[in-house]
Amino acid sequence: MDKFENHIRKNRDSLDMYDTPRAVWKRVRRVSRVKRISPAGWLKIAAMFLVILTGAAILLRPGFKTIKVKNEHLLHLEEAEIYYNNLLKNLYSEVRPLLTVYPEIEAELFSDISRLDSLNASVRNDLQDNISNQEVIEALIQNYRLKIRILEDMLTELRQNSVDEQNNKDHEL
Question: Measuring CA to CA, which residue among 97, 84, 85 is closest to residue 154?
Fold first, then answer.
């Protein structure tokens, strides 16, 4: 025990001879009393509780996660479409001057691209129903890849033909 506690125990009788005034005890009770909540306070608490419950219900409902997944898939698809469309545009700008010599090949190319575009439109209709279905998105991306492959193959073939024609002209008398 420490010195202060020993002093209190030894001198307790002499210390208890003084009585605490009633006014001091009233103030102590007033300070220690639990505050009562007014009706307006209860209304604020109820409103906060309602906001918290509503927020939790919105965030935890199954449709909210689906919307988030749909937005992520749409963002992925939009990025892929921008990339592939730019690539297609660049390839087409390379192929176009070479196609002026071969109008029948140009017609065939536009026919193939038109068929792929119509397939793309039907897959897009499926996409509205199945946005979270990765297979639908992959089908759209595969369609773009096929267009790119057609243009790349055509570009390679046309370049080879122009080189062959140039070689034939060089070998002619």
Answer: 97
Predicted confidence band of residue 83 (pLDDT cuts 50, 70, 90): confident
For the chain, give every domain's residue range.
19-60, 63-171
The per-residue DSSP string of 54-65 comes to HHHHHHHSHHHH
What is the reported pLDDT for 172? 55
Q: How far is CA 35 from CA 25, 28, 38, 47, 49, in A?
A: 18, 14, 9, 20, 20
Q: What is d(CA 120, CA 147) in angstroms, rounded to the nearest whole number?
A: 11
pTM above 0.90, yes or no: no
Number of other CB atoms surrounding residue 119 within 10 Å: 15
Q: Are 130 and 74 in contact (CB under 8 A)?
A: no
| pLDDT, position 68 | 53
